[in-house]
Amino acid sequence: MKFRPCIDLHNGQVKQIVGSTLKDISDTTSEKAETVMPAENFATDRPAADFAKLYERDQLTGGHVIKLGPGNDEAAKAALAAYPQGLQIGGGITDANAKEWLDAGASHVIVTSHVFQNGQINYDRLEQLVSIVGKERLVLDLSCRRQPNDPDGPYFVVTDRWQKYTDLPVNETTLQKLAVYCDEFLVHGVEVEGKRCGILQDLVLLLGQHSPVPVTYAGGVRSEEDMDRVLALGNGKVDLTIGSALDCFGGDLKYDDVVAWHKKQNADYIN
Asked: What's this model's pTM, rounded to 2 decimal places?
């Protein structure tokens, strides 16, 4: 199990936000959507590239840069240039620009919205994307939430900055079927993302039991006890991203302690 670091970008700044508060408003004059200001836990003028260099220093691989809406390309490219092949990139990735982001230094591209249409997977788009970047450089983002009227029901994949529900449940069948097309899964537990309220234990358990490819969980971590819980529930197979809880993002959990925990778990693989 690994700690996977993150750099979340909103309006060109490194931020930590409450994921469930991301919303769009329609601009009826230009027929474009703009992101409403979400609830922020943290924002900084420190360049994204500085965080990338920090992760490179600490030999943390497989982390991700997520572009939350427009205005983030410059900062994202600077982060990728600072840590070539050390970070994945997500947010607005399509078959038209995926190769560009790999050329900019990303190890993988992370995709959700582009491969969904009318709430269902568009396999033609997915296969086209695989033909361009290769299965080995594609991460499918299966970030999910429960339906509001079914709080104990299944998790469904959500797209478009986690606002639109799809018809795709996150379950054994989905994980097995989609693993054919990608190298990894990334799964944010949207309802707890950014809230530091504890992990979605049933989701972590499901991922650990049924994902046939590497999978990273994000959402709700607040302490080292939560990290240990992911390790146990995921049977060591579920990697972990922590954002708002880290002291480098304004939280109480010391980044250096998380890195030390990660290195202890992976002592056999770290030189």
From this structure: 0.91
